[in-house]
Amino acid sequence: MENKESQEVSQKSPFAGCAILITALLVMLFLIGFSVVILFRQFGEIAKFTEERPNAIEVVVVEDREAELNRLAEKIERFRLDVNDDKSAVLDLNVEEMNLAIAAYDSFKDLRGMFHVEEITPEDIRFLISFQLNGKPRLAKDGEGGLMTSDPRYLNGTLVATPGLLNNEVVLLVKNIETEKATVPREFLEQMSPYRIAEKYIGSEGLGTTMAKLTNVSLGDGYVRFEKVSGKIPEDTITNEQVDAGSRKVLTFLGVAATVFLFFVSLILLLGHRLRKKRQRDEQGG
């Protein structure tokens, strides 16, 4: 009899009946609000060090340079054949050769107007860059397609990085991005690094096959060195700690935010539980 009365009292409590629904709505509103705030905060920070127009990045001239192009092609082809035959091989490319390769080979056409090798030292390699990024979202106008769109922003400056190997892929470990407008935040650099400059070549014949067999990539005074040691299994030269540095900070931030949110949800449920018990006692006493 008492259990039946308690059940009836519980059914009379609007909070008891809606607690799960309220919690679900709170979770949904939190996730939506949190995502929107983070998104607009991110776009606001990006706008500080990006520009509305791209910089003109030099693409070297290839006309009337047949002799240089032939030497470069022979150099690369000889290295490719040795690597694919599992022979020890070394390929050194200087600044001019790298820029010439970008301008001449279709495999690198996506880098034209976006990347230009400026300097190579034993410590790092410097690229002049003009990267297109998404700007703040806005409602689309007629002819733009979709409901939402964004105006592009451009990251113009100098990218300072060191090359390495990660999962049979040549990547760039970003050390800094220098711009005239503002300092690029460390959090942005960590999220961008390692930069997968050669991602599109993975699994492809030719360049992709050769890249997967490299055993080391290093820097010298004015050149980048690609190496293959016969019989050696390719290994990553970039550690998991370097790859996960930025992700750990994001996960930590999300963890703190989730903990605070769950604390408030738990507090609301606790107050609701106490209110329900109080109503039960009041009605039983009445």
From TrEMBL:
<protein>
    <recommendedName>
        <fullName>Cell division protein FtsX</fullName>
    </recommendedName>
</protein>
<keyword id="KW-1133">Transmembrane helix</keyword>
<keyword id="KW-0812">Transmembrane</keyword>
<feature type="transmembrane region" description="Helical">
    <location>
        <begin position="250"/>
        <end position="271"/>
    </location>
</feature>
<keyword id="KW-0472">Membrane</keyword>
<feature type="transmembrane region" description="Helical">
    <location>
        <begin position="15"/>
        <end position="40"/>
    </location>
</feature>
